[in-house]
Design goal:
By secondary structure, the chain is an alpha+beta fold. Helices cover about 25% and strands about 40% of the residues. It contains 2 helices and 5 strands; from the N terminus they run E-H-E-E-H-E-E. A 5-stranded mixed sheet has the order 4-1-3-2-5, with helices on one face. The chain is globular.
Length: about 100
């Protein structure tokens, strides 16, 4: 992908009932479905954090999914997005769950 393709990177933190409900697995699947790269992990404070990178349109779609849908049994109370920036090329490869 070239610099002209509008690539972006964004960090996220999802609040609510998002641990123990396969949230990370579904996030990984949704990211891959959208052709994005990134990572996701649980925090000790009970939230889920991560980063996604890819074409701006797909990243926006992922942000909507993260804030409104999530995994089937999750209950999202808040989604926080930060450090959104344009990137020249993808800095990550694949989509992984971190521990």
């Amino acid at each position: 992908m070239s610099a002209g393709s509008g690539l972006v990177s964004v960090d996220f933190e999802i609040f609510g009932h998002v641990q123990g409900v396969c949230f990370r697995m579904y996030t990984e699947k949704e990211g891959l479905r959208l052709g994005l790269v990134g990572w996701v992990k649980n925090t000790y404070s009970g939230t889920v954090v991560g980063q996604v990178q890819g074409p701006a349109e797909e990243v926006e779609e992922m942000k909507v999914w993260l804030s409104k849908e999530g995994s089937p049994s999750s209950r999202i109370t808040k989604a926080s997005f930060s450090n959104q920036r344009s990137i020249d090329k993808l800095e990550l490869s694949g989509f992984s769950t971190r521990f």
